[in-house]
Amino acid sequence: MLTDTEITEAETRRWVERYEQHLDQLPVLLEHLRDRANTLKAGSMNERVSGGGGEAPLPFREDPVDDCDDLRAALVEYVGEVAERLQDAAPDAAGASWATSGRVRGIPAWMKPDDAYKAGFALIAWMIDRARRIHALTLDDSEGHLFGLIRKLSKRYVDAPPIERPAHRRTCSVCGERAVIVAWLLGDTGEAECRVCGATYAPEGMGENDGR
After folding, report:
1. What's the average model confidence in pLDDT over 10-33?
2. CB–CB of 26/124 below 8 Å?
3. pTM score
4. Residue 70 main-chain phi, psi, to 5 deg
5. What is residue 149's three-state secondary structure?
6. How confident is the model at residue 131 (pLDDT cuts 50, 70, 90)?
7. Cα–Cα–Cα angle for 154, 24, 204, nearest 5°?
8. Count of CA atoms in the C-beta half-sphere (13 A) of 179
9. Which of 5-9, 74-78, 182-186 has the lowest mean pLDDT?
10. Would the CA dihedral through 17, 186, 115, 63 be positive or negative?
11. Please, which residues have CB within 8 angstroms of residue 46's CB and are 6 or more apart in sequence?
């Protein structure tokens, strides 16, 4: 039988793995979004804006620009919150952001795709090094917002094999309740969780225990 200490350690280890899986997507995702917003690719756009000489094509891809700004802002705000709570100075890369009225709005105009990758990598490396300390902060709302945005944008912009969501709850092999549902998905990985006892499963393994 597991001790309370062993259970706590296992839960922390699962949280850290999930944390790293989400953060690992960020540098590539920021680079990808920044590249898709590149002005050189504006020729294929259908969006148009009004101007003195009539309508003209936008000089950038609007959706990727907005999404990249949202992701960068969520990341930098989260890093700032973590740094404040840990009383640990945030990395310099957090300052490479576009801000107005003291609030981060997104990625600066000068930042190229490769720069976006490097800045994102510096931030996630800082957080992963402190993952266990961050876990103790229980920043559920901030993490939920950032990780939800990562999953949404990864699904929208990055090709990845889909994970089939089971149509019905599955039976938990630990507590016996039919309460196992998919908790989160990211690319080709994810986690299912029993809403009664908290046992976790890989989504692809849920079909092995379908309650029959």
Report:
1. 89
2. yes
3. 0.65
4. -60, -45
5. helix
6. very high
7. 65
8. 10
9. 182-186
10. negative
11. none
